[in-house]
Amino acid sequence: MLKTLLQKIVTYFFLVIVITVVGIVTLSMYATRQAIIKETTNNLGVIANEVSHNVNAILSDGINDARLISENPVILNTNSSGSEKENELLKFKKLLRRYEDITIIDEKGKVISSTDYNYRERWQDNVWYREAINGYYTASNVHVITNPTKFVINFFAPIFSTEGIVIGVVSLQLNMESIWDLTDSVQIGKTGRVIVLDEKERIIADRNKDRILRGTEEHRGHGKHAVDTTFLDSILQSYLISSDSITIENSVVSVGDVEYDNLFSGWTIIAIQDEQEALSLLSTYRRDIFIFSLLILLVTLLISLRFARSITTPIKEFVTFAESAGKGLLDKEMSSATLAEKNEIGDLSRALSKMAHDLEKSQKRIKNYSDDLEKMVTERTNDLESKNLELEKFNKIVIGRELKMIELKNKIKELESGH
Fold first, then answer.
1. pLDDT confidence tier of residue 419, bands split at 50, 70 and 90
2. Closest by CA position to 278, among listed 47, 51, 35, 46
3. What spatial distance separates the first Cα and last Cα of the chain, rounded to whole Å?
4. Which end of the chain is flanked by fewer CB atoms within 10 Å, N or C?
5. Which pTM value belongs to this model?
6. In this structure, what are the phi and psi dihedrals at residue 388, rounded to the nearest 5 degrees?
7. Is the pLDDT of residue 65 over 90?
8. To the nearest 10°, the Cα dihedral for 34, 37, 39, 44?
9. What one-character-per-residue DSSP string does 299-368 give?
10. From residue 389, how far is each of 384, 393, 395 by CA, in Å?
């Protein structure tokens, strides 16, 4: 019974602690995970914001550099020769260094001068050239040119005559490697990186250059492109993504005294990091808290055993004391430790001890009374026997006298009858 009680106390106590520890650990792990994810996402947002600012600066500089060239006196002078304009363009290319090609096209789409002409299409069919001819500063989408294959973006600025008439267009060709150098230099752990998407959600900047301009697929029978979200989702599915991904929307580019907005509408800067790497700290925390929990459970087990024994040991002593009392051994004393307890167990032990002492006193009184009674009975019995002997002697004397009188009466009758 005591063993079962000990097991029950330990089991209940241990289960309560286990449930409590498991609950606390689970809640702590969840809260820590959410905190890490939130902090990582915030950090990614800061990185995305900073990269967005730098990319936007490059794109804004492209428009302003195109404006600067378009306002150059040599370029504006219709009497300047082609070689003079080419020399001026080469100076700009050397000064700016960022652009691979600077080309001047007239209002009819004819190339006037160029540093490294490599455009193979008709300028009249180029939508961004047509916008510039209409007097707008603009920039192309990221596109591919061949021989050699490059990913580029072009900035266009109209050339205005002194009368305010557009007489040509300046085109600056920027190799996307200028932006890639910026995005690829960002270090986010071992797996993190920055990805740039255009307005069609095509990848235009990524460390894996095989993905550039991926994210679209051409519908058969149609000349349009649709976003292949499956491809993009397959890249991002195992990563934490900044919840504050920066879109270069409503960005304002100042060109002279004129401000143009939405020149690069829809470009999105995404900072990502592999979730497993971001949560690597959680793995360490999980291991530490697991070890700590085991220590807590071990200490709890030892405490519960000690607590259970503090209850079952006095109970066992009570049982032994009761069995001894049942056998009449009332002089057996409880341990001083049990009697000194300042709780219900101590109260019970002192009450049982007092009860035993009272029973022992009562037993002694009963025994003494029994001994006295036995002595009184013996004395009374002896007195009675003595009186019985005296009575018996008296009876013998009386009976003997009566017999003699009867005998004497009989002799008198005999004598009387003889006469």
1. low
2. 35
3. 108
4. C
5. 0.64
6. -65, -40
7. yes
8. -160
9. HHHHHHHHHHHHHHHHHHHHHHHHHHHHTT-TTPPPPHHHHT-SSHHHHHHHHHHHHHHHHHHHHHHHHH
10. 9, 6, 10
